[in-house]
Each structure stands twice: as C-alpha cells, then as structure tokens.
C-alpha cells in the first residue's frame, strides 16, 4: 500500500487551524468544558483514527473469548490454552520493545498500518485453520506469537500518533476520547462475545475480528501524516535557551532524555509500580478476600471490577474537559496518592456495595491521571524520541503483570490478602510521593519535561 503524501497547505487549512486555536484559547479560560471533550472529532484524521480503533477494540474483545472457547471445546485443554496465551504475552513484550525505535524511524501511522495489515492476514489464517479443524498446538503458538509481536509493535505507535494529528492543546481531549472509548469498546466486545460465538461459532467470530483489523487498516490508510513541529530547543539543545552557537547542537538522545528528565523517570516509575501492584491486588488478593472473608459470589467480584472500569471511563472523559489547569501534573500525583490510599482501605470494606464505591472513585482518579500524564508526555517529548518512550511505557504497563500475579500467588496463601493490599498500595504511593516532592511537578503553566524555565 502507498502512503498518501500531505497535500500543500491552503488558505482553508490555515483558517481551520486558526479557528481551532481560538477555540482552544476559549476552552483554556474555563475550568471545565464538556463540549471540549469532543473537539478533536472535528479533525478528519483523528475521526478516522478514533473510528478505526473503536471497531478494532471491539474485535479484540471477541478474540479474547473466541480463542479460549475454541481450544477448550475442541480438545486443546487448559494447559494448551496457557501455552498459547503465554506465547502471545511474551511476543507482545518483544514487539513493544521493537515498536518504539521502529515508530521513531517510520512514523506512528505507518507502523500502525503495517501492524494492522499483517494482523488481518494472520487472523484470516487462524480463521481458516479453525474452520478446517483443530490445528496443531505449535501452529496455534506460532500464530499467537506473531499476533502478539505485531500487537506489541502497534502499542508504542498508537500511543505516539496523537501529536502528529492534533494541536497540542487538544492532546488531553484526544487522549480522553481514545482511552475511554477503548475501555468501552473492549467491554462491549467482551459483553457480546458469548452471543457472537454461539451464533457464528469460534471460526466465524475470529473472521469477524479479522474484518475489524481490515477496517482499522483502511482508516489508517486514508489518514494523512501531519507531524507537528517541535521546537528546536526541546529537541536539540535543552538548557541552551537564549544562546547561539556556530555549530549545530546534536539532537537529544533517548538515554540523555531518560537521565535528565525527573518527570519522565517518575512517570515511568509510576507505570512500573502500577503494573506490579494492581495485578497482585485485583487478580489474586481481591477474589481471595471476597471469597474467604466476605463470602461473596463471583458476581460480586465482577461488580467490583466493573466499578473500577466505569470509574476509569468517567475519569478519562472528565480529563478531556479539564484542559490545562494550573499545577495539573502535581495535582495528578495527589490524585494518585488518594487512589493508593483507597486501595489500601479496600480490605476494610464491609460488603460488596462499599467495595464497588471505593473502586469507582479509584477508577475516576486513575482515568484522570493516565490521560493527563499521556497528554503532557506527548506534548513535550521530541518527535524523534516519542516512539521509544511510549514503547518503554507500554512494556512497563503490562510486561510486569506475570511477575505481579506470580508473587501474589505465593504471598496470599501464606500471609492472607490484607498484607498484599497494604504492600500494593504503598508501592503505588511511592512514585506519587516522589512526584509531589519535586518542584518540576508544580509548574503553574505548561509543564517542561526537562525542567526548563
């Protein structure tokens, strides 16, 4: 497939950009504007991206039900299912590591288009194999690993694409829409998956997922590359403002950015702690707590997890309407401290209803934090390093999950669920406390990633 080049700018393009800037200025004057959440949808490129990813995320929900159902009903067994899912998970981590530098070289949209195009072929092949009968385990592992590999490559690119199609003042609203819609679409896909699998059988459901990848690839194909210009100082000469040199300063490297930016270090630490803490608390300690102490049913566990998901959607949407409020990064760290405290208090809930309310509030705070942090990073990281940073964050976000649940599986039977909640909550509070104590997190205006004045 060929990539459509960016057409010459016209007077109409300039007027649209001017009106968008004016709208952003009016929005900045308000503390909260509900209508501003949907402003990015007026951007043709973002609308295509949003629509394609919405449909693709629904397809992901279908896949997560169809493949296990096929393997368990077709004689593969639990052990074979674990091997296939393990191959997917390991390959996804590798793909995320490769996807960061690849995004820097090829630009986010091209990497996303490549990944989705390959996944159309892989999912179509899996559909045909399932339709023909039960394929060999090694074949399923190979296809699952390849799907995980290209899915991992897709992640850093998808986390880096917004600055190339949105004005910096619209990044928070854009992240708000993509984050909340991804959660809604995934929930919708999982919700209807049982009906779809019963109607179309696993093979038909996997074929439907292949079609969603095709739609996503089509939306990406018709987008245009519109990379926003980064300031030369932000990209090349941090700390040299106000001076001129006869020789060109070499571009900032990934290692230099990671060493010098305390803000980036803290956000990375936050992602690591979330990956280590929440898996242990939500997937191991919480069900044990509900089953052994509260004697709740499986539906109670589902309601509590749903409370967090609903809260995260509300928080993500709310973040899109807040815009650039003063001290937004420092306030985000305060919100994270409150979320950590709520999770520590979760074992003290007297019943499922209180647990749902606690998780609902924690989810709201989590949604606010994630959208705000992503908007700040996307607006400040130089374009040539954005993919690498997002790849590292993607690995930190899900790569430590197996370690988290593995440790919890050893600790909970020995010490109970309460100490795990305490340790997990304190782990989450650590990066938030570090952020609260840093002056760079309390800048009134635009946050400077490298701490420039």
What's the helix and strand layout?
Layout (H helix, E strand, L loop, with lengths): L10 H18 L15 H30 L3 H30 L1 H25 L4 H24 L10 H51 L10 H5 L17 H7 L1 H31 L5 H25 L5 H18 L6 H29 L2 H16 L2 H15 L1 H20 L17
Helix pairs in contact: 2-3, 2-6, 3-4, 3-5, 3-13, 4-5, 4-6, 5-13, 6-10, 6-12, 9-10, 9-13, 9-14, 9-15, 10-12, 11-12, 11-15, 14-15
Q: Which descriptors apply to this entry?
A:
453 residues; mainly alpha; 15 helices; 76% helix; globular
Summary?
The chain has 453 residues and is mainly alpha-helical.
Kindly report the average pLDDT value.
Answer: 84
N to C succession of SSEs: HHHHHHHHHHHHHHH
Number of beta-strand segments? 0
Which word captures the global form?
globular
Largest sheet: none
Helix content: over 70%
> Compute the gyration radius: what is it?
23 Å
Class by SSE composition:
mainly alpha
Any overview of this molecule?
The chain has 453 residues and is mainly alpha-helical. 76% of the residues lie in helices and 0% in strands. The protein has 15 helices and no strands. The longest helix is centred in the middle third of the chain and has 51 residues, at 171-221. The two termini are 45 Å apart. The relative contact order is 0.14. Mean pLDDT is 84; it is low at 1-25 and 228-247.
